[in-house]
Design goal:
Blueprint: H1 5-17, E1 21-26, E2 31-34, H2 36-42, H3 46-49, H4 64-75, E3 80-87, E4 93-104, E5 110-119, H5 121-166, H6 173-199, E6 210-211, H7 213-219, H8 223-227, E7 231-236, E8 244-245, H9 248-265, E9 270-281, E10 292-301, H10 308-311, H11 331-341, E11 345-350, E12 356-363
Parallel strand pairs: 7-9
Antiparallel strand pairs: 1-2, 1-5, 3-4, 4-5, 6-8, 9-10, 10-12, 11-12
Helix pairs in contact: 5-6, 6-11, 9-11
């Protein structure tokens, strides 16, 4: 059946106006047609992409075996469906659901392939946030119950050892052992306190007043001295930053933990940047924040960055990539607990070789 010019125009308009990316390649993979959505998603204009191989979108995230299986499927005349992590012209990555179908001529020979793609980057980010939130909530409940039970036991141990100490003489072995037990018990109690921060079980804590975050950050600039001379600190503070409900000492604790984490990631030398900005939340945006105004504080470093499988676990209590005995793995979970308790959100962005950035979003007071 031959199509009328009117029908051809209708089909072309549909291809151009759909929000899904559609492009056609020849049998060797060279692009011969790309719709408007292709330009919007990839950043490549049609003039730049037509005549070039579709591998201009390759991100390096997939193996040769992955592509071989795809090609074997479509060259056999079958359609292939799956997911790609591809790369835009500017180097940023995105995830898309893909269906590639072979196009045959009247003799049944495959001459072209049509690829229909749907960007699912935002959907997956929201799914991951939900899964992460549920996992952290479960860990928080477990950590809170364990911390509560251990705290009760440590209270008994510390109280008992204080009574024993009253009957001992200074300089004796018994006094030394008692002091060692008390010190270890109090150190353990401090770890329990940090776990309680993560678990958000300090219900008697009053909501802090609205704070000037820029002023609090300036007051905490002494942390540069604590980080050592090999760490360079940079500050990019936005004027007229929204006020947010966080106690200055809480913000200092958050910044200290993030800065120490960045220092360790950089191997003790590099640049840490603390920046602030006003941010408008959009549930449909790439950060998935509820609608509203936020004060954002970011701590970024020039370290080696981290892969996705590490980022998935960074806020979990006791998770650490440091050698045994070099860290408790509680620093970032404490930050997470503080920010969540204040109704905020903390997100991490990183890629191997590009450093890491932790950004806190606190609702405008």
């Amino acid at each position: 059946m031959e199509l009328t010019s009117e029908t051809c125009t209708l089909v072309f308009d549909a291809l151009e106006q759909t929000h899904d990316t559609i492009f056609i390649t020849d049998a060797d993979g060279k692009i011969v047609y790309a719709n408007r959505a292709f330009e919007d998603l990839t950043g490549f204009t049609r003039a730049e992409s037509i005549g070039r191989n579709a591998n201009i979108l390759k991100s390096g995230e997939h193996t040769k075996d992955f592509y071989d299986k795809m090609w074997n499927t479509i060259r056999s005349g079958q359609a292939w469906s799956g997911r790609f992590i591809n790369k835009r012209k500017d180097g940023t990555r995105y995830m898309e659901k893909v269906r590639i179908s072979p196009l045959k001529n009247a003799k049944g020979k495959i001459t072209h392939y049509i690829s229909v793609r749907h960007d699912v980057t935002h959907e997956l980010a929201l799914e991951n946030q939900l899964v992460q939130s549920q996992k952290m909530e479960a860990l928080g409940l477990l950590a809170g119950q364990m911390a509560h039970d251990f705290n009760n036991m440590l209270t008994i141990i510390i109280g008992s050892m204080e009574l024993v100490k009253e009957d001992l003489k200074e300089g004796t072995i018994g006094m030394k052992l008692t002091d060692d037990i008390l010190k270890t018990s109090k150190d353990s109690a401090n770890l329990i306190k940090q776990l309680l921060v993560f678990a958000r079980r300090q219900d008697d804590e009053k909501a802090p007043p609205a704070a000037d975050l820029n002023a609090a950050i300036k007051d905490s600039q002494t942390l540069a001295r604590l980080l050592g001379p090999k760490i360079r600190m940079e500050y990019r503070l936005a004027p007229d930053l929204h006020r947010a409900k966080i106690a200055p000492e809480q913000l200092t604790q958050v910044l200290m933990n993030l800065a120490l984490n960045a220092k360790d990631a950089m191997g003790g030398s590099g640049t840490i940047t603390i920046a602030t900005e006003n941010f408008r939340g959009d549930p449909d945006g790439d950060r998935g924040l509820p609608a509203g105004d936020y004060a954002a504080v970011s701590v970024s470093d020039t370290g080696p960055g981290m892969p996705a499988d590490i980022m998935e676990h960074v806020f979990e209590p006791f998770f650490t990539t440091k050698p045994k005995g070099k860290g408790t793995g509680l620093g970032l979970s404490i930050v997470y607990g503080i920010i969540k308790r204040l109704g905020g959100t903390i997100l991490v962005a990183s890629e191997p070789g590009r450093g890491a950035a932790f950004t806190i979003y606190l609702p405008k007071a």
